[in-house]
């Protein structure tokens, strides 16, 4: 087996060295993948009824988590939402438990869905404006198509 060193010269490589190099390459790829995740601005959970926003949010360096199909709202609240920001247009089913399970909500009922790119930009801008990555829990941000978003702190 042969490989090229840094100068492009062919060097002999025994099978054991080749196997070690493959393991090291795989490890390096894992490190790079973790660094990419760490560089994301934050993570949000998307409700199934707004999952079409996923690619637009990811394009804005926001990592998106989508609950498995078939999970009940209670399972989502208990297993996935604690410590995270939840984006939904079904706020009424989640607002009462947000302070109990410690998650934040970005409510989209006041927005139009015509342009997902613009909506993702508005969400990203609102997250930054209201410092939601630092808060993550105990709030609801009511988004508005006119840009007049309303932030509320939730209490038990």
What do these coordinates show?
The protein is α/β, with parallel strands linked by helices and 156 residues long. It has two domains: 36 residues; 113 residues, Rossmann fold (3-Layer(aba) Sandwich), CATH 3.40.50. 35% of the residues lie in helices and 23% in strands. The protein is built from five helices and eight strands. The strands form two sheets. It has a six-stranded mixed sheet. It has a two-stranded antiparallel sheet with strand order 1-2. α2 links the parallel β3 and β4. 19% of the residues are buried.
Q: What's the CATH architecture name of the largest domain?
A: 3-Layer(aba) Sandwich
User: Which CATH class of the largest domain applies here?
Assistant: Alpha Beta
Q: Tally the structural domains.
A: 2
CATH topology of the largest domain: Rossmann fold
In whole angstroms, how far apart are the ends? 66 Å
- Helical content class: 25-40%
Class by alpha and beta content? alpha/beta
Number of helices: 5
Number of strands: 8
Give Rg in angstroms. 22 Å
Task: Give a short synopsis of this structure.
The protein is α/β, with parallel strands linked by helices. It has helices spanning 15-38, 54-59, 73-79, 116-129, 132-135; strands at residues 2-4, 10-12, 42-46, 62-65, 85-88, 104-110, 139-144, 150-153.
């Amino acid at each position: 087996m042969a490989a090229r060193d840094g100068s492009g010269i062919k060097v002999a490589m025994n099978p054991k060295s080749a196997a070690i190099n493959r393991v090291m390459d795989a490890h390096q790829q894992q490190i790079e993948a973790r660094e990419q995740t760490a560089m994301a601005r934050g993570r949000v959970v998307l409700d199934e009824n707004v999952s079409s926003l996923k690619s637009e949010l990811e394009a804005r360096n926001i990592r998106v988590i989508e609950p498995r199909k078939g999970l009940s709202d209670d399972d989502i609240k208990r297993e996935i939402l604690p410590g995270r920001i939840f984006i939904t247009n079904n706020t009424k089913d989640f607002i009462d438990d947000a302070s109990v399970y410690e998650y934040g909500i970005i409510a989209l009922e006041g927005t139009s869905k015509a342009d997902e790119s613009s909506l993702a930009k508005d969400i990203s801008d609102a997250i930054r404006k209201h410092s939601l990555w630092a808060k993550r829990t105990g709030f609801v941000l009511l988004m508005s198509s006119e840009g007049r978003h309303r932030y509320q702190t939730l209490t038990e």
